[in-house]
């Protein structure tokens, strides 16, 4: 019988990155690092990065003798496949999805096309570039095809709104997603290692759940296990599992929905959701009796167990 290891594995927490969500990543990564320290199960190294090369990442791993990496980056490079491609070359296990699922999930239009194979309902949408006509009628939502945290999201009620939003956004966003505006209740479902977490309903004090409502303001309401029409909770959980499996998500994700009289509409899949004090996956996990230290330790150990160089530990007993 193999003996359990007598020392703590070294986990390298990465945060920062070059994307618009850098500040969120800095907050998320600090919370993850603190939670892993609090768990008492790991030796934690916390590193702020910009956009390192593969060699620079390799040097970081060697410098700290890291045995597992927890990359807590948000945005097109940090969670959209760029960083994951570098991590794949390091022969060190890491938390989160592999490059292809990360790229697919970051591209909202590609996600819609893929999920259509499983008849997952998503709002009708088109992808538009500066020279394209917008054939979708308002009201609609304009947003980047490949970014998150409601960065550069605009709700357009008229044709004039659409033209004004495009004039503002296209100079810095070559491709935009024009998507039917769903007027309804906003729901989200966390995904951890093949299971769903309790549903959360998001009730922003302002018009919609934008960047400030997510990370700055304290007047957004979060309702855990909200009262919903019959079958909606089960349907959202089912669609979450279908989406994560179809995309190939690994370890952790968050799936966002809008609910109207027709039922739930899947908006997007986030392969590295936030871990800030305002974030929804840690909130849902805590509601299910899985506090932040347990959640982060579970995800880290799940990644570490993929390494042939480490003897599995019994971290899951406190999480399952």
Describe the structure.
There is one protein chain. The chain starts with 9 loop residues before the first strand and ends in a 16-residue tail after the last helix. It is globular, with a radius of gyration of 20 Å. Helix 1 crosses helix 10. Strands 8, 9, 10, 11, 12 and 13 form a 6-stranded antiparallel beta sheet that branches. The chain contains 10 helices and 13 strands. It has 3 domains: 10-96 and 290-318, 3-Layer(aba) Sandwich (Rossmann fold); 104-120 and 183-270, ATP-grasp fold, B domain (D-amino Acid Aminotransferase, Chain A, domain 1); 125-180, 2-Layer Sandwich (Dna Ligase, domain 1). The chain has helices at residues 22-39, 54-64, 82-88, 99-106, 108-115, 159-169, 211-215, 232-247, 280-287, 292-304, and strands at 10-16, 43-49, 68-71, 125-128, 140-144, 154-156, 176-180, 185-192, 195-196, 200-203, 221-224, 252-260, 263-270. With 320 residues, the chain is of the alpha+beta class.
